[in-house]
Amino acid sequence: xxxxxxxxxxxxxxxxxxxxxxxxxxxxxxxxxxxxxxxxxxxxxxxxxxxxxxxxxxxxxxxxxxxxxxxxxxxxxxxxxxxxxxxxxxxxxxxxxxxxxxxxxxxxxxxxxxxxxxxxxxxxxxxxxxxxxxxxxxxxxxx
Length: 143
Prior knowledge:
Blueprint: E1 2-5, E2 7-8, E3 14-22, E4 26-33, E5 44-45, E6 55-60, E7 66-73, E8 76-90, E9 93-105, E10 108-110, H1 118-129
Antiparallel strand pairs: 1-9, 2-3, 3-4, 3-6, 4-7, 5-6, 7-8, 8-9, 9-10
């Protein structure tokens, strides 16, 4: 199991940013998905300030959520998909204990990617290729 450091919302809930974007030949992205792989509703979306390749949408993180990390160099992707197994706090700073669900490297998934996470992975690929990305890519639609 690994550890991912989180932010705290104003109300003290553990949260993580959807962030990233692409540059000329490289890019990276972090996407947050719910336990079922669907997009979640953010608590905050940044609309001002320096946005290119930065933090775009803040999501409350709960047990069972998924975190997709994607990086590419000239279109050669390395993608890791994690599931949040527990939320903890150390020295006043929240963290998530995560377990690797699947990893894509050198053109292959090991173990195979569960189908319900395909849309989140595609959003991570798209965001990592989005030149000077300035907006979130995987958020639930407004009610």
